[in-house]
């Protein structure tokens, strides 16, 4: 684990040194909500929340992301979840076109040009999962369980589509998956972006 942290710090340091020597960088934060698909005790679908900090220089993107996926179950406590801290690296492809694709595709008929970015990222993650075990208290509306924490490293992959509404505000979609030993999951999020694009 210590070697992984040293490698990540080296990559971050190298990226920041390059940024000071060259122009053409941008940075932004995003927050997103969505639906994920994961195998939990009583559900295969969950609710996802994500926050990401991004830095880009010459189409190279490095990101830190926090994601929390919770199950759609109301009467079992504690609720199962998985949390993920991710460091990702990727590349962006930028283009412009008339109209907006997100959130309503019919807005593509607007006679104004908008900038878009398609960003593909891969990385490493640290994941923590809360899993229910034995039933402790059986009530009609409120079942209580014992629980355990599972944790481990993972391999996240993400593809984002970002549209820039202005130079500092955007929206988009992300499609993601994370292969890990706590529980594999994938899903889709709707994001809002704030920063300098």
What would your notes on this structure say?
By secondary structure, the protein is mainly beta. Helix content is 10%, strand content 66%. It has an eight-stranded antiparallel β-barrel. The two termini are 33 Å apart.
Descriptive tags:
mainly beta; eight-stranded antiparallel β-barrel; about 200 residues
Q: What does the oligomeric state look like here?
A: single chain
Compute the number of strand runs: 9
Poorly predicted residue ranges: 18-22
- With strands numbered from the N-terminus, the spatial order across the biggest sheet is 1-2-3-5-6-7-8-9
Cα-atom radius of gyration:
19 Å
Q: What portion of residues belong to β-strands?
A: over 45%
Distance between the termini: 33 Å
Q: Give the integer mean of the pLDDT values.
A: 84
Percent range for helical residues? 10-25%
Biggest beta-sheet profile: 8 strands, antiparallel, barrel
How would you classify the helix and strand content by structural class?
mainly beta
Number of helices: 1
Topology overview:
Layout: H1 2-21, E1 25-38, E2 45-57, E3 60-71, E4 76-77, E5 81-98, E6 113-138, E7 143-164, E8 169-180, E9 185-196
Parallel strand pairs: 4-7
Antiparallel strand pairs: 1-2, 1-9, 2-3, 3-5, 5-6, 6-7, 7-8, 8-9
């Amino acid at each position: 684990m210590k070697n992984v942290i040293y490698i990540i710090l080296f990559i971050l340091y190298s990226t920041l040194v390059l940024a000071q020597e060259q122009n053409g960088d941008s940075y932004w934060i995003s927050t997103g909500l969505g639906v994920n698909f994961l195998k939990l005790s009583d559900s295969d679908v969950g609710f996802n929340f994500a926050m990401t900090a991004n830095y880009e220089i010459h189409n190279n993107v490095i990101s830190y992301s926090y994601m929390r996926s919770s199950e759609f179950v109301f009467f079992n406590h504690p609720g199962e979840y998985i949390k993920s801290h991710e460091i990702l690296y990727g590349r962006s492809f930028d283009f412009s076109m008339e109209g907006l694709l997100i959130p309503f595709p019919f807005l593509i008929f607007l006679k104004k040009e908008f900038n878009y970015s398609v960003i593909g990222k891969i990385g490493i993650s640290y994941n923590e999962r809360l899993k229910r075990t034995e039933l402790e208290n059986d009530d009609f509306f409120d079942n209580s369980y014992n629980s355990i924490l599972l944790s481990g490293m993972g391999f996240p992959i993400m593809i984002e589509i970002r549209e820039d509404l202005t130079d500092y505000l955007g929206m988009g979609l992300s499609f993601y998956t994370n292969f890990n030993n706590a529980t594999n999951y994938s899903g889709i999020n709707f994001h809002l972006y704030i920063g300098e694009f």
